[in-house]
Design brief:
Largest sheet: 8 strands, antiparallel, barrel
Radius of gyration: 25 Å
Protein name: CHAD domain-containing protein
Strand order of the largest sheet: 1-5-4-3-2-6-7-8
CATH architecture of the largest domain: Alpha solenoid
Strand content: 15-25%
InterPro entries: CHAD_dom, CHAD_dom_sf, CYTH-like_dom_sf, CYTH_domain, YgiF
CATH class of the largest domain: Mainly Alpha
Number of helices: 16
GO molecular function: inorganic triphosphate phosphatase activity; metal ion binding
Pfam families: CHAD, CYTH
Order of helices and strands: EHEHEEEHEEEHEHHHHHHHHHHHH
Organism: Piscinibacter terrae
């Protein structure tokens, strides 16, 4: 069977209200759910998105195998009622005749034996709600995950489709998120428990995943897969940021995902039929900009500047970008506007916002035009003003993401060579922008002699880089990944 479900974290101040809203006038009793999760010693199941558990549900004992599907909202699931009272062992053979069970068998073929990795003890209250799109179950979970001596509190709301369209889940989610300030969490109990068992409070930042496209498939399918790839990168990094524990790289990768999404929206001509998604992605991207700039300035540029100043006997701290002028990343991502963006993307990828896609030939011409303009901009870089250089970098990024999106449908060798040249180009353009951000961070303190030295050092590095960048036009001009416009 397939499970269509989304999970949301409940903030402490909303827990009583959420519990009361789920209970309603009928106030159904809570059910205690005690589960043991199993994996191999080398996490063979977790690494491929499988979760195997044995759970006591009131008087029932159920073994469940779940597997992630590719859309972020659907999971394959197979349940088997058990007669034994033991919860300390799992039998993979019980799922042998199912698609998800066959995936498990392949994983276990060359792996070590299953062991219990963590437990959960949850009290759940549920309520069925009818919407105009179908019936959903709202479940409020409150409890704990235990791995060895470590524990992690659980307080989340699950919205699962019982019957009807996936739109029922997404419509209900909008209501609960807006009313109670919830935030999406793509990490299920299995992933959170796996992290706890390994002593890792933070999941790795999610980078863009490769997109598998069949040359015989239609462009509508290609368009959907591209947007799904963007949604995965956005939602996974946003979930970790929303937890309150994240690195600067999570913010960076979230912004990369948002920029990739905006590129896809422009490339496939979705700005007019679905402008609200492009607008929301733009707002979220810009809101996170100050935090990203602060991380860049405090990183490698600060290190290089410290070394240069130490060489002449000076000690000085590079000013931080004023990230406090805006909200913190956790507040930006938890805000309803960002949460609504992700829900809108789930709707779109479920086929609820499908529009006719342009042909591959049209997309090739669009990329060819961008390629030509990037080459021209690089050649003229020394004569461009700062705004034009910034726009050139954005165009180069759009070209890179567009080529990555369509690479399986284009000439592989030409695309790979072009992407390699683009990577070097973007590295240098990025360094130019980082130096510019650092200079701007110093300007408010320009009356100080040491700060003026720092500004001069940064400006000299930037001028040297400006002089070098036009040489990047030649190698990129030689690459013709797509046909001429």
């Amino acid at each position: 069977m397939r499970e269509i479900e989304l999970k949301f974290q409940v903030p402490p101040q909303a827990r009583a209200a959420v519990d009361a809203a789920v209970a309603g006038a009928a106030r159904p009793p809570r059910v205690r759910l005690q589960a043991a999760y199993f994996d191999t010693a080398d996490r063979a199941l977790a690494r491929v998105g499988l979760a195997l558990r044995v759970r006591r549900e009131g008087r029932r004992l159920v073994q469940t195998l779940k597997g992630l599907e590719g859309d972020g909202i659907t999971r394959s699931e197979h349940n088997v009622n058990l007669s034994t009272a033991a919860v300390n062992a799992a039998d993979p053979s019980l799922h042998a005749d199912t698609p998800v069970g066959q995936r498990l068998a392949v994983v276990l073929r060359d792996s070590s034996p299953l062991v219990m990795t963590f437990r959960t003890d949850i009290r759940r209250r549920t309520r069925a709600v009818r919407t105009r799109h179908g019936m959903v179950e709202i479940a409020f979970d409150d409890g704990v995950i235990t791995a060895g001596e470590e524990q992690l509190a659980v307080c989340e709301l699950e919205i699962e489709l019982l019957s009807g369209s996936p739109l029922a889940v997404l419509a209900a989610a909008r209501t609960w998120v807006k009313r109670h300030g919830l935030w999406l969490d793509t990490r299920g109990k299995a992933e959170r428990g796996d992290m706890l068992s390994r002593g890792e409070p933070v999941a790795p930042p999610r980078k863009a995943s490769g997109i598998e496209l069949d040359k015989d498939a239609g462009m509508d399918d290609a368009m959907r897969r591209v947007v799904l790839s963007c949604l995965e990168q956005i939602s996974v990094n946003a979930s970790q940021i929303s937890s309150g524990e994240h690195s600067d790289e999570h913010v960076h990768q979230l912004r990369v995902g948002l920029r990739r999404l905006r590129t896809a929206w422009r490339l496939f001509g979705l700005e007019e039929p679905a402008p609200q998604i492009d607008d929301a992605a733009t707002q979220c991207f810009r809101a996170l900009g100050a935090s990203r700039d602060s991380a860049v300035v405090a990183g490698f540029i600060a290190d290089e500047l410290h070394q240069a100043m130490a060489a002449i006997g000076l000690s000085w701290d590079l000013p931080r970008v004023a990230a406090d002028q805006g909200a913190a990343p956790v507040d930006i991502v938890r805000d309803f506007s960002c949460q609504a963006l992700m829900l809108s993307l789930f709707e779109w990828t479920q086929g609820l916002g499908t529009v006719a896609s342009p042909s591959l030939q049209v997309l090739e011409k669009e990329l060819a035009r961008d390629h030509k303009k990037v080459v021209a901009g690089l050649a003229e870089f020394t004569t461009l003003d700062h705004l034009a250089r910034h726009k050139l970098r954005k165009r180069a990024k759009r070209l890179r993401y567009g080529l990555e999106f369509l690479a399986p449908l284009l000439d592989g060798d030409d695309v790979r060579r072009t992407l390699k040249a683009l990577k070097k180009t973007l590295d240098e353009l990025g360094r130019y922008m980082d130096l510019s951000v650092a200079i701007d961070a110093c300007k408010p303190q320009a009356d100080d002699a040491t700060t003026r030295f720092a500004i001069g050092w940064l400006a000299a590095r930037r001028e040297a880089l400006i002089a070098e960048i036009p040489a990047l036009a030649g190698p990129l001009k030689k690459r013709r990944p797509v046909r001429k416009p």
